[in-house]
Amino acid sequence: MAIQAAGSVRALALVGPTSAGKTTLMEALLQATGAVDKRAGAEMVGDSSPEARARGHSVELNLAGFEFMGDRYSVVDCPGSLEFCADLDAALPAVDLAVVVAEPDPAKAALLQPTLRQLERLGVPHALFINKMDQARGSLPDLLAALAPVSTVPLVARQIPTWEGGAGPTLLYLHGAVTNHMLRSLSGGFEACVTITLIDGLVLARSAFHHSMNYRSVMVFGRATIVDDPDEKDAALHALVEHVVPGRMAEARPPSAIELRKTSVLRLPITEASAKVRSSPRFSWCSS
Prior knowledge:
The protein has helices at about 20-30, 50-55, 85-90, 115-120, 140-145, 180-185, 230-245, 255-260; strands at about 10-15, 60-70, 70-75, 95-100, 125-130, 160-165, 170-175, 190-205, 210-225, 265-270, 270-280. The chain is of the alpha/beta class and about 290 residues long. It folds into two domains: about 10-155, P-loop containing nucleotide triphosphate hydrolases (Rossmann fold, 3-Layer(aba) Sandwich), CATH 3.40.50.300; about 170-280, Electron Transport, Fmn-binding Protein, Chain A (Pnp Oxidase, Chain A, Roll). The strands form two sheets. Strands 6, 7, 8, 9, 10 and 11 form a six-stranded antiparallel sheet that branches. It has a five-stranded mixed sheet with strand order 2-3-1-4-5, sandwiched between helices. The longest helix has 15 residues, at about 230-245.
C-alpha cells in the first residue's frame, strides 16, 4: 500500500469465494472500530437487500467505512459468486489493497486461483486472510502448501491468530519478586499484553536501513490476578522449572517457605492470542 498523508482515505476490497466470510469480516471490522453498534439485534451493514438475504450471499458491492488510528478506510465487500463477479472489474482498479478472504480448508484452495490471477494481472497489492480458523481442517503448513500452487508469488505466514476464548491453553503464569513494580501493578486485574519473541537469525541487506531479522513472536491478552492458593502457586513454579530443565525438580531442593513468600505468581487467563512470524531462506540477501 502506498504511503499516504495522515487522515487520508485508504480503500480496501474484500474479495474471495462465496461463503468465505467476507461480509462477516467487514462487519467485524466496523464493530471493532466503533463504526457500527455492537449491541445484539443492531442492524448489520452488509447483504441487506432482499435478494442477498434470499440467496444467503452477496449479490452486489457492499460499501462501508471506518476510522482507525487517525486514518480513514473505505471497505468494498465484493460478491464471490461467479454470476456477480463482473462488479470486481470496476472495484479492483480503484483500491489500495485487496484482502483475499479464504476458508481454512486445503481442499478449497483452488477456488482462490481466479481471484489471485486477476489481482496479479491488474497489479493490485493484496494479502491473504484465512478466516474461520476455529473451523480449520488440517494444519497451517498443510493449508499453506495447498495455497502455494494457486499463486505465482510465494505465500508467507505473517500473522497467525492462534486462539481466542476456550480453544487452546487458557492460563499463563508470570512470576517474580514480590517487590516487582510491574507484577504488583498487574495483580490488580488490569488488562495486560504479554509478548514473547524468539530470534532465529539476522537478515543482512545491502543498506543498513533494510537490515532485519527472522523471528517468531506471540502476544497474549488477558487480565492478571495474584495466585493466593499455595498448591496452585507451587504447581506453577514446578512447571516453570520442569519446562527449562525436564526432571530437575526431582533432583533440586524444593523452595522453602521464605523463598515462596518472596516470590509473586500471577495468573493470566488468556482471552486472546496471536502470533507473527518472519522467515527467509538461510544465506539469502535482501536486494535493497
